[in-house]
Amino acid sequence: MVRIRNQNLALVVLLLSALALQVLPLFAGDRFIVLQSTTSTRNSGLLDAILPVFEAETGIEVRVVAVGTGQAIKNAENGDGDVLMVHALEAEQKFVAEGWGVRRFDLMYNDFIIIGSKQDPAGISGLQDVVEAMKKIATSNQIFVSRGDDSGTHKAELKLWAQSKVDVSGASGTWYRETGTGMGATLNIGIGMRGYVFTDRASWVAFGQKENHVVLVEGDARLFNQYGVILINPERNPRVKQQDGQVFVDWLLGENGQGLISLFQIDGQQLFFPNAH
Amino acid sequence: MMPILVKNLTFQVGRQRLVDLTSLEILAGGPTLILGPNGAGKSLFIRLLHGIIEPTSGTILFNGRVARQQFRRHQAMVFQKPVLLRRSVAANVAYALKVHGVTGRENTRQVDKYLELGGLSNHAKQSARSLSGGEQQRLALVRALACTPQVLFLDEPTSSLDPAASDSIETLISNAENLGTKIIMITHDLALAQRLAKDVIFMQNGQMDEHALAEKFFRSPASASAQAFLASKFTPSSEINGQN
Amino acid sequence: MQNFPDTLAHSIGLIFSGDPQLWAVVLLSLKVSLIAVVASGLIGLPLGALLAVGRFRGRQAIIVFLNALMGLPPVVVGLVVYLMLSNNGPLGVFQLLYTPTAMIIAQTILVTPIVAALTRQLLESLNAEYSEQLRSFGVTGFASIPTLLWDGRFGLSTALLAGFGRAIAEVGAVIIVGGNINHVTRTMTTSIALETSRGNLELALALGTILVLTAILVNAAVTIVGMPARRVENG
User: Fold this and answer.
1) Nearest CB to B72 within list C130, C138, C235
2) CA–CA separation, A191 vs A41, rounded Å?
3) Do B59 and B66 meet the contact criterion of CB atoms below 8 Å apart?
4) pTM of the full predicted structure?
5) How confident is the model at residue C234, as a pLDDT?
6) Strand, coil or helix: what is A147?
7) Which of B74, B83, B86 to mutate to test the interface with C (most CBs of C within 10 A)?
8) CA of C183, closest CA in chain B: separation in Å?
9) Per-residue pLDDT for C87 more than 60?
């Protein structure tokens, strides 16, 4: 009986020590910064490819928190990150204008595309005018699945719908479906419904379950998707790691970062085009 | 040493007065048996005496004092169905000893002693709940004795036991009595009562109808209720069984 | 689409591949959830015991509330803990956000009500059985708690396992407070969420299978450890 008690006690002590050890590393002094970015950026695999190089060069670990665009910006306003990297120009400019960020720089762009089933019932394949294509989807009442989550991708999609003069919010729940979630889940649902989806190319190329869906519309200049990078303002949030954050921003905008971005490929395709000036 | 003095004791639940005793004195010495029909309030009564239920009104003095914590240190109780801890036989006795301040090697020594007294030494490491009904009650009894109580309360200790098991319980009770423990016991077994009792308290409807020396009580009870009770018990068949 | 034997084969392949990333993720899940359960036990067991034995005004209301807390949505807990630990929040100075410690805190909040509520129920019925006898021994009120806790240990270990099950399976809390950061705060559940969002459903399912297997292993281990003692108790 006594022996069993001691065993239980030993186990509890062991587990409590593990708990204690959890807290200690906080004071160990790892050198890292937190990058608030979007799920589509992370899912493309770009960050996994270029960040290790930065870490090797500078010894600074970059911890990526990948959430929806809105959440990334909110986290940045709360000071829960050191650098913000999203693709939502107006929101980024507002972020800087309101004093949350130091300054916004163009970083790179990729492009948006419309994917759909090979059958293409709306007949949009190969169209050069993306707004035309979207009008056709609406008038032929084909299912179109949108992220509906206020992300950079979603905002770009809505801008184009506005140009097409189609009222999508009125049609929500009929041929126009809003998932309210990330690109991957939205692609899954869109493919499951055999519908059309507006997506960024990087997410599509990296997506693992294409089934019999293909790229139908691409190349229109309005499908240009610009990424920006912003150092979060240490004056608003004193705990922001200004120095290391700046090193990262400079690296991204400099020769090394820009070069690595252009070298990143999936299936032989370059997905991101560096355009810092 | 004067065990128990009761004054104006009542126990009330809602409107019902379940125990109502004006005055009672239980002296040291031989066993006091508490008899009476079902629902007489006997079980409530000994729990009040033992201090594990709080009375609605009245005083109970034990050794001249009122403090109920004191009661439990010098008293012990055995219930109709033994309440054994989910531990080994030995651990149950060890627990009672530890609660009464006996620790370490002395604890182990006494556990062995009391297990032997109860004829349970062979079962020491076994789970207490795996014992038979009679063995469990023996365990409950020696566990109570391990507390070296001045007063030992027993609430129908043999009512769910077969005759052989009953006998072993009775032996243990007699031994305890011989060693000076005051026994206060409820039972429906009148033969057992007659063998053990020095004096008898007869209860009905929450009240004490009679308190007399056993000899007198069984020969010619004073109260009408006791007379009726004994008459109903001593039918030819019940004389043979000694029970209901 | 997927079929179960293929997925199972994929899972087994993953396990035996010895992929260090996979093991890091499994170990982190175990570490976070096990520590959370220990912490929840340290709070929940005594709390449940106090509620079981105590008699005071408002006790019933507290019990109802505690039982309801068993249904706390993980994502809500994650959100609240995030707001607390955020640099903008009251506890930002501790810099706990996006660390395993934050995940442990969130899971502890989720699991403690489960442990406390189940403990309360178990010990209340045990106390009903024991209380007269314990009072006879002079062990009254809160003093009876150690005895109840020890004698109730098998039921209580099930309560802890229930808490563990809740912790290891949830994603809503840990993904918000942990940030699902690669090599730092990525657990099995957040990996599943990640691979699902990438469309790598087969990998996600395989990870899910490993998660279930891990939970089975932990439960089996606890049961085995308890076996010799159970034999003593039940004879």
Assistant:
1) C138
2) 21
3) yes
4) 0.83
5) 57
6) coil
7) B86
8) 46
9) yes
* pLDDT above 60 for A185: yes
Average pLDDT over residues A46-52: 95
> Residue B154 is encoded by which pair of tokens?
């027993």
Identify the band that residue A1 occupies on the pLDDT scale cut at 50, 70 and 90: very low
The amino acid sitting at C136 is S
User: Using CB atoms, which residue from C137, C151, C233 is nearest to B72?
Assistant: C137
Q: In the numeric block, which tokens belong to residue B68?
A: 């109920």
Residue in B73, B83, B95 nearest the CB of C129: B83
pLDDT at A117: 93
B244 CA to chain C: closest CA distance, Å? 27
Residue B236's pLDDT is what?
Answer: 56
Structure tokens at C6: 């293929």
Partners of C130 on chain B (C-beta within 8 Å) are 83, 85
Contact in structure between A72 and A241 (CB atoms under 8 Å):
no
Q: Supply C81's token pair.
A: 């803990």
Is B85 in Cβ contact with C130 (below 8 Å)? yes
Cα distances (angstroms) measured from residue B142 to each of B76, B77, C111, C132? 11, 11, 43, 18
What's the pLDDT score for residue B95? Answer: 97
Q: How far apart are CA B90 and CA B142, in angstroms?
A: 11
ipTM score of the complex?
A: 0.90
Tens digit of each residue's pLDDT (9 = 90 or more) over B47-94: 999 989 999 999 998 888 776 666 778 899 999 999 999 999 999 999
Q: What is the mean pLDDT of chain C?
A: 91
Dihedral angle over CA of C149, C151, C155, C158, nearest 10: 60
DSSP string, A203-243: HHHH-S--TTEEEEE---GGGEEEEEEEEE-TTT-TTS-HH
> Minimal CA–CA distance to C195: which of A209, A205, A194, A149?
A209
Contact A50, A260 (CB under 8 A): yes
